[in-house]
Amino acid sequence: MARKVIPHEEVKQAFSEIYNHFYLPHRNQGNAARTEQQWVYITEDANRISSRFDSTLVNSMLNAIMAQFDNEDKEMRQTPLKGDSSDAAGKT
Known about the structure:
By secondary structure, the protein is mostly helical. The protein is built from three helices and no strands.
């Protein structure tokens, strides 16, 4: 079971690692949803960080970021790209 309290220095390290080595590399910088392979990497990195810190705080942060990534992907799949045939509906 994950620790509920971790020392302040570990909190600092965890925040830094989660932002710099998890969020930044996996954030979506384009207009396409992440691929299956990208999700494999995301999951592997989340598990590695979670194992390293073994903390409910860290697990909650990783889960929240992964939910953000998932919501971004869902939104992108629902938004037609410019030039898409569905974009031309109603034009003469």
